[in-house]
Amino acid sequence: MARFATLLLIPVLIESVLSISFFLPVNSRKCLREEIHKDVLVTGEYVISDESNTKLKITDSSGHILYSKEDATKGKFAFTTEDYDMFEVCFESKSPMGTGRIPDQLVNLDMKHGVEAKNYEEIAKVEKLKPLEVELRRMEDLSESIVNDFAYMKRREEEMRDTNGKKRTVLMVVVPCTSLTWTCVVWL
Question: What's an example GO cellular component term for this entry (predicted)?
Fold first, then answer.
């Protein structure tokens, strides 16, 4: 019986790990940042416990507003990235003065990007795919995502190797010159 209860509890635990929850004090701001590659679909869902004046704003590093909602309590958002960039999701709580003690708000945020953000059930309906075909599509997208990530990491590794090589060349010239200069100073 204990094994059966554990098996029932595992999917609940896995689902709860995919989102983040935090308390937002009154008259404060909390932001979350994430780096996301170019041409990636990002979806999200949020729920805020109390109905007070809370603002949700999603921006990129250039300050472009991708999503904004005043008096946010519950909702969804989606956008596709144009460049590799750092994105910021900010929740800001404002309360008018003189309203007394207001408890902290519980914020639940579930963000998905890339393959996990795609709605394969909707794709199956539109393209009239069988369950096995949907799973194959999901696997294709996942493998393509992995290949793209490896290609990105390889490009970054090459850039870093080139930078290290250039710095090594500069140091090979600077260090002997500095040593020679100190030798001349000591002789004098």
Answer: endoplasmic reticulum membrane
